[in-house]
Specification:
- This protein is of the alpha/beta class.
- It has a single domain (about 5-330), classed as TIM Barrel (Alpha-Beta Barrel).
- Helices cover about 40% and strands about 10% of the residues.
- β3, α4 (about 85-95) and β4 form a beta-alpha-beta unit.
- α1 (about 10-15) packs across α3.
- The longest helix is centred in the last third of the chain and has 19 residues, at about 310-330.
- InterPro entries: Metal_Hydrolase, Pept_M19.
- Keywords: Dipeptidase, Hydrolase, Protease.
- Its EC number is 3.4.13.19.
Length: about 325
């Protein structure tokens, strides 16, 4: 069975490890060998820039961009980029894994739609509008301006129903849709989510977010948000971070398949099976992972079968739902 993973932070991890680290084979969750074992059809690679820790944030983004394209060039026999939906079909025929480039924190355009268009020209096809700081586009639920301990439970559960997209953010979303870029609302405030629902004309995604009713953290979506995402034809990617799957006594709790199944079945029951996908957050999380790489995704597949999910629905979760969104948006 194929797999589409909407989010990993592997490029940053490779960049931090230096030039000798390789996407071909490494000790991370994501490398070519593991992706091939897991039958990955499309792997999204996020470029994450911590804007408040960088003197020149756009320089860091360009460093990561260079590393991404360099890895694709060095591994062109096994990998190929996705610039439009037809590339996914072409790459599959050529027995290559499709790679889709994303940004985590769309604020790196610095309130300039020309920069957004330039990122498109550089191959970016999905953007998470915010990370954990406000930017010119909008606001997150969890703003790290509010606290120094990211694991403070009371703040992890704090939602923002007042501060959504800015006027520039609304123009940004419309320009993304015009270009053929996928809007990603993971990390966005609740108010921002509803602004996207109001202004988006195409399906959008929450690339790595779970169900808030099952695990009450603000990074997850509440029931009404899940239903609205489903009605817009969008998809939410199951995040493998243990702290977003279930409540633990301490931070960085284990990531268990049992909890993943609980989220999937819950989302199916309150909305539909059509809005569920995978967004592992591999190489960006620190949980003890029961599924440490795509090579181990068979564990989730077997667990879903035991839970009574038919093969057709398992395929929707693993790749068909996200593939549909890509076909409608790219």
């Amino acid at each position: 069975m194929f797999l589409i993973d909407m989010h990993c932070d592997t490029i940053l991890s490779l960049w931090e490890q230096g030039e000798n680290a390789s996407l071909r084979k490494n000790g991370l969750s994501v490398d070519i060998e593991k992706m091939e074992q897991g039958h990955v059809l499309v792997q999204n690679f996020a470029l994450f820039t911590h804007r408040k820790e960088e003197a020149i944030p756009e320089k860091r983004t360009m460093d990561l961009m260079d590393r991404y394209w360099s890895e694709l060039e060095r591994n062109a026999d096994r990998l190929a980029p996705v610039l439009c939906f037809e590339d996914i079909e072409k790459n599959a025929r050529n027995h290559k894994i499709s790679c889709l480039l994303t940004l985590e924190d769309g604020g790196v355009v610095f309130d300039d739609l020309a920069m957004l268009r330039n990122y498109y020209r550089l191959g970016v096809r999905m953007i998470a509008l915010t990370w954990n700081y406000p930017n010119g586009i909008g606001y997150p639920n969890l703003s790290m301006d509010d606290f120094t301990d990211y694991k403070q439970a009371s703040l992890l559960q704090k939602v923002d129903n007042e501060n959504g997209l800015t006027e520039f953010g609304i123009r940004y979303v419309k320009e993304m849709e015009r270009l053929g870029m996928i809007v990603d609302v993971s990390h966005l405030s609740d108010a921002g989510f509803w602004d996207v629902v109001h202004h988006a004309t195409k399906p959008f995604v929450a690339s790595h977010s779970n169900a808030r009713t099952i695990c009450p953290v603000a990074r997850n979506l509440d029931d009404d948000m899940i239903r609205a995402l489903d009605q817009k034809g969008g998809v939410m990617g199951l995040n493998f971070c243990g702290d977003f799957l279930e409540t633990h006594a301490a931070a960085n709790g284990p990531s268990r398949v049992e909890a993943m199944v609980r989220h999937i079945l819950y989302i199916r029951d309150i909305a539909s099976i059509n809005c569920i996908g995978i967004g592992t957050d591999f190489d960006g999380i620190h949980s003890d992972l029961e599924i440490p790489s795509s090579a181990h995704m068979w564990k989730l597949q077997e667990a879903l079968r035991k839970a009574g999910l038919p093969q057709e629905d398992i395929e929707k979760v693993f790749y068909r739902n996200v593939l549909r969104v890509y076909e409608e948006t790219l």
